[in-house]
Amino acid sequence: MLYMETTVTPAPSLTKPVSLPLLFQQQRARAEALRREGWEARAMRLRKLSRWINDNRSAIQQALYADFRKPAAETDVSEIWSSQVEIKHTLRHLKQWMEPRVVGTPLSLMGTRSWVQHEPKGVCLIIAPWNYPFYLAIDPLASALAAGNACIIKPSEITPTVAALLARMCREIFDPTVVTVVEGDKDVATELLKLPFNHIFFTGSPQVGKIVMRAAAEHLASVTLELGGKSPVIVDDTADLRDAAEKIVWGKGINAGQTCVAPDYLLVQESVKEKLVEEIKEVVQRFYDPEGEGVAASKSYARIVNAHHFRRIAGLLEDAQAQGANILLGGTVDAGQRFIEPTLLEGAPSESRIMQEEIFGPLLPIVTFRTLLEAAAIVNSRLQPLALYVFTQNNEHQRYLLQNIPAGGSCVNETILHLAHPDLPFGGFGNSGLGKAHGFAGFVGFSNEKSVLKQRVGRTGIKTMYPPYTPKVKKM
Ligand code: NAD
């Protein structure tokens, strides 16, 4: 049966989904048809997605505001624009990505031709987190559709307004046998993970990433794991401190620090610490308190997503203070508003929770170092970070730090922006993730790279290897 994208059957109420195995079976049947589709059908879905986002900008802004008071300007940049960049980049390059990639022929296989062709994996599962709940569902969806898959999206239950909006979006523009949203919490995710998906794209914490990988192993499904961790920012004594302060405060302040690649802790060379702290204080005031009414009055600053995360972050701060940390800036928390001020602190012991766990909130502990060797050792004593930020004007220092600190990705004299470049594969390493997303890397992640060797009929380069084995073959 041919499925027509234009005759979209309304999806059933997905809060109480129909049988998940049935939904999966329907997608699996459809995936067979998707496999035979060409570029135009995939591009059409991507265009629909892009159009819907364009037409529903204010609904997206409202949903994000309802879930955690995310400022509309931040939603524009980090949810809408970032999604459109990915979709448009994919649309621009998809035809070329789908072309078989011809590879050269070694002498031993002379006469043959070989290429790699990308085929869809089949039915994919996308499990999304709450911190960029729209973008982190759309970004992998664009790659999944570009690669020709059917997929089920399980958004986070912690941002229910965005989850409902994603469900509505998919009902409006996709046939549910191609893309469906299944809303729900970890129990729903657990049920989904029992199904034999061909690929699972998970964004979330390393702890849950391990659960996902175990479940995937049951069916030998491939996985992309976009996880988190403690991303350090290192500022040496050659850095432009004003510039560094602006970029660090921006990278930490966006989404109130609830960003997987937010600078988690700050390593600063001892001799420039005081100056950097002064610069950071000035920037925080300029960004979030220009009228002097307090950051809580700022319309440019988000809230902590829920009471659980508020208690967790406030607990990290209390715990650090109890262990001797001093607050240099901020420190105000308000449970009623789930507000936590941008907070700079020093003196948190290395074994304190704030220096061991991913903070995922607007607290920035400072640690000083004397030599780059010492800075690298501090970072490398922890698990591999998702991002490494280096502020320096010395190319040798840059080279040393990039070479000696393993990390998923990195920026020099910038924070966060490496994830906005669609030609840079994005992802973690070790504890911060497995596999890469964005652009071609995302397309490849959702594709099977099928290797093909074509021989001429009646010819083979290895006829001499056929049995029965003779002394001549043995000699080879
Ligand atoms: P989380 O791991 O708690 O949840 C992510 C998703 O997994 C949600 O949809 C949730 O419903 C589901 N889930 C939760 N428990 C589960 C279980 N036991 N079994 C199956 N599914 C389960 O993560 P979060 O709190 O939503 O997001 C924060 C984490 O995500 C941070 O560690 C952050 O660094 C990371 N993150 C990483 C990236 C990246 O691109 N690398 C992006 C955003 C967030």
Structure description:
- The model is unreliable at 1-15 (pLDDT under 50).
- 42% of the residues lie in helices and 17% in strands.
- The chain is of the alpha/beta class and 476 residues long.
- It folds into two domains: 20-228 and 437-448, Aldehyde Dehydrogenase, Chain A, domain 1 (3-Layer(aba) Sandwich); 232-427, Aldehyde Dehydrogenase, Chain A, domain 2 (3-Layer(aba) Sandwich).
- The protein has 16 helices and 18 strands.
- Strand 3, helix 5 and strand 4 form a beta-alpha-beta unit.
- The strands form four sheets. A seven-stranded mixed β-sheet has the order 10-13-14-9-8-15-16, with helices on both faces. A six-stranded mixed β-sheet has the order 5-4-3-6-7-17, with helices on both faces.
- Bound molecules: nicotinamide-adenine-dinucleotide.
- Nicotinamide-adenine-dinucleotide binds next to helix 7 and helix 8.
- This is Aldehyde dehydrogenase.
